[in-house]
Amino acid sequence: MTLSREQMAQRVARELQDGYYVNLGIGIPTLVANYVPEGIDVMLQSENGLLGMGEFPAEAELDADMINAGKQTVTARPGASIFDSAESFAMIRGGHVDLTVLGAFEVDVEGNIASWMIPGKLIKGMGGAMDLVAGAENIIVIMTHAAKDGASKLLPRCSLPLTGAGCIRRVLTDLAYLEIENGAFVLKERAPGVSVEEIVAKTAGKLIVPEHVPEMTF
């Protein structure tokens, strides 16, 4: 079976390390805030000016003024701070974010990422993704492995306008966890019940498959 949005967030949350400052992009990445492992203390940053995001609020905790970059209502953990977007982007551009989790339309074997526009479609703006991929060395992309029409989104070369070049090393899809090494995707883990053959069939870019590919556990 393919991973649910929640399972994808759970898997990425395992990559968090104690003391990390982490930026969560719009979409599935924001769910990672709900799955920070016990005993791990991280500060979640949102580029609209919040450091110290907590879990999504229960109905009784809703505060319409407390939002993330995706306009979702969030909570602030003890010790959180609120500031303007200039200060937030100074953190990002200054390399002070330890891990960035982003969504994407396409990723390719060279570590390029396309995540901000599809030509011919209305966009609200590029957001902070270009700054994030330029300012962070540790990036995980969360995305679906294939488009709705079945076309692969893991490519030999991105076809959409690039958000960043040569900056991606780790990708989690609804089918697999992969790393990018020497111009190829390397299959590290597969979703429960998903065969290696299915992953191979839905990966357009060069794919290296080790002899043993473990299933993820939840």
TrEMBL record:
- Which BP terms in the Gene Ontology apply to this protein? beta-ketoadipate pathway
Stored SMART domains: CoA_trans
This protein's UniProt keywords: Transferase
EC number(s)? 2.8.3.6
Catalyses which reaction(s): 3-oxoadipate + succinyl-CoA = 3-oxoadipyl-CoA + succinate
Record pathway: Aromatic compound metabolism; beta-ketoadipate pathway; acetyl-CoA and succinyl-CoA from 3-oxoadipate: step 1/2
Against InterPro entries, the record matches this protein to: 3-oxoacid_CoA-transf_B (IPR012791), CoA_trans_fam_I (IPR004165), CoA_transf_AS (IPR004164), NagB/RpiA_transferase-like (IPR037171)
Instruction: Drop me one GO molecular function for this one.
Output: 3-oxoadipate CoA-transferase activity
Whether S-adenosyl-L-methionine counts among this entry's keywords is: no
> Does the keyword section mention Transmembrane?
no
- EC primary class: transferase
Q: Which family does it belong to?
A: Belongs to the 3-oxoacid CoA-transferase subunit B family.
In Swiss-Prot or TrEMBL terms, this protein is called: 3-oxoadipate CoA-transferase
Q: What species is this protein from?
A: Azomonas macrocytogenes
